[in-house]
Write a structure and sequence with these properties.
Rossmann fold; 281 residues; 3-stranded antiparallel β-sheet; binds pantoate; alpha/beta; 6-stranded parallel β-sheet
């Protein structure tokens, strides 16, 4: 497994692979890898000839009062995990942006609600870093987990709008056996807070079960979800159209229920599908 620490070295590596007729896949991450990341790597491993994982804690996507400086890091552990699933190259740039970098990639519409509303500028930072990573790594395919459902939809929109030559695939949301959605930020949870954080999964599950049993009214679904929650501060509990991410009053087509809440120190996000399944193309 190669470890590449500059954009130039990464691009040269990728160009060598591609000129040899090989396909390249990319799993972008911010490190502190868990089984959710490894499942994205395994998914892409079976589809491409050369698999790249990027590890970069992107300052552009953190707000001024967010956890950029304390974001968990474990370089050696991350490299061992990448090696264990057959990653060919890990891209760990110190600096990803060149001197004088002055570009911001912004997707409208899909970023109006959910995390886009409560974390202003977050998706501009995500789109900018992902566009830059696509330019440096030049992957044929990249995978983004459904845990960050809004991020996945925003990046698919960006790729389509800018005609970027990369296929963006959805990756399954992975949970611990008790239902907690896997996240690097779970490391901030005390044992007691972790037990309360499970209420997010319970709330989503209750809403999904009620919808499957015929309840289409979002007001009724939201009441059920709120009653199940045991969190310190709810950021949002929204039911949105799965394609436009705009809030809906009734579940009449593919929808998503999404929750963001603070439990102890971390702000956690999770979501589940409601209604008919989304057909990915
Ligand atoms: O999902 C993440 O870990 C980040 O938002 C990403 C896609 C790696 C961009 O920094």
């Amino acid at each position: 497994m190669e470890i590449l620490s500059t954009p130039a070295a990464m691009t040269a590596w990728s160009q060598r692979a591609r000129s040899g007729g090989m396909t390249v896949g990319l799993v972008p991450t911010m490190g502190f890898l868990h089984d959710g990341h490894l499942s994205l790597m395994r998914q892409l491993r079976s589809r491409v000839d050369r698999l790249v994982v990027s590890i970069y804690v992107n300052p552009l996507q953190f707000g001024p009062s967010e956890d950029l400086s304390s974001y968990p890091r474990d370089r050696e552990g991350d490299l061992a995990k990448c090696a264990s699933v057959g990653v060919d190259a890990v891209f760990v740039p110190e600096d990803l942006y060149p001197d004088g970098f002055s570009t911001l990639v912004s997707v409208n519409g899909l970023t109006e609600h959910l995390c886009g509303a409560s974390r202003p500028g977050h998706f501009d930072g995500v789109c900018t870093v992902v566009a830059r990573l696509f330019g440096v790594v030049r992957p044929d395919e990249a995978v983004f987990g459904e845990k960050d459902f809004q991020q996945l939809m925003v990046i698919r929109r960006m790729v389509e709008d800018l005609a970027l030559p990369v296929r963006v695939l959805p990756g399954a949301l992975m949970r611990d056996p008790d239902g907690l959605a896997m996240s690097s930020r779970n490391t901030y949870l005390s044992a007691e807070d972790r037990a309360r954080a499970l209420s997010i999964h319970r709330a989503l599950g209750a809403m999904q079960a009620a919808e499957a049993a015929g309840e289409r009214r979002v007001s009724a679904l939201r009441s059920l979800g709120r009653a199940a929650l045991d969190v310190d501060r709810l950021d949002y509990l929204e039911v949105v159209d799965a394609l436009t991410l705009a809030p809906v009053d009734r579940v009449d087509g593919p929808a998503r229920v999404a929750i963001a809440a603070w439990v102890g120190r971390p702000r956690l996000i999770d979501n589940m599908p409601l209604g008919p399944s989304l057909r990915w193309i």
